[in-house]
Amino acid sequence: MSTVPPVTLALAPARDTMQDSLFSPRTMTVVGVIVAAHLAALFGLAHLNKPAPATIEPTTFTATIIPLPPAPQPTPALPKPQPEPPKPQVATATPPPKPRVQPKNTITQKAAPETPPAPTAPTAPAEPVKDAAPPAPVAPPVVAPAPSGPVEGLKVSCDERVPVYPTQSRRIGEEGTVQIRMIIDERGVVSSASVVKSSGFARLDQAAKDAALAIRCKPPVSGGRVVSAAAVKPYNFRISD
Predict the structure, then answer these.
(1) Among 11, 185, 186, 208, which is least packed by CB within 10 angstroms?
(2) What is 50-102 written as a DSSP string?
(3) 81-84-85-86 Cα dihedral, nearest 10 degrees
(4) What is the number of alpha carbons within 13 Å of residue 125 lying toward its C-beta?
(5) Separation CA 192–CA 183 (nearest Å)
(6) CATH 3.30.2420.10 is right for the domain spanning 151-237
(7) What is the pLDDT of residues 79-111, one digit of tens each?
(8) pTM, whole model, 2 decimals?
(9) pLDDT tens digits for range 203-226
């Protein structure tokens, strides 16, 4: 840090002399030097308070290249052993066979005389085989003829339909029993319904017929065949019902 040199000012004895000395060139020069010195001191202090810029030193790395080990040399294949040459076979001479010596005293057997075969009796000629009798013809299965009309008395499974009681008949107290004869076709549908026994009231008879025509049954079966059937069903009309 720089120091400001001391300045010695001379005091003038008189007022006018002091004013002249204040604005004299020498005084102005001294003041300018003092101001410049203070400015320089202030500038130096400002630079002292700033931290010095950091410097980064470069780091040097030294790389060492290690050479790779040499690749292993392929092992030479061992030569295959050569097969040994076949040994020559030594031919051995076989001695010729010795001739067989037959004995001088040989006994020869005489063959026995052949006996003639006994005469066989003549066989009678076989009689010709007669042709077998032809099989009897198989009779065709007997098919029962289809009934010409609806079958009576068959048990037929049907659903139950309750007849509707006519309002007018209930109000005036009409009661009775109606017997309806139904014809059930091969589909199980009631194709017709007729009054066998009337209740005495037309409204009750018609209500019974309507209920019979609404019945659905299983197809009637007779003799293994689907047929039409006839059945009679009673309908009771009571006010208490």
Answers:
(1) 11
(2) SPPPP-PPPP-----PPPPPPPPPPPPPPPPPPPPPPPPPPPPPPPPPPPPPP
(3) -140
(4) 3
(5) 5
(6) yes
(7) 666 666 666 565 555 656 665 655 554 444 444
(8) 0.40
(9) 999 999 999 999 999 999 988 899
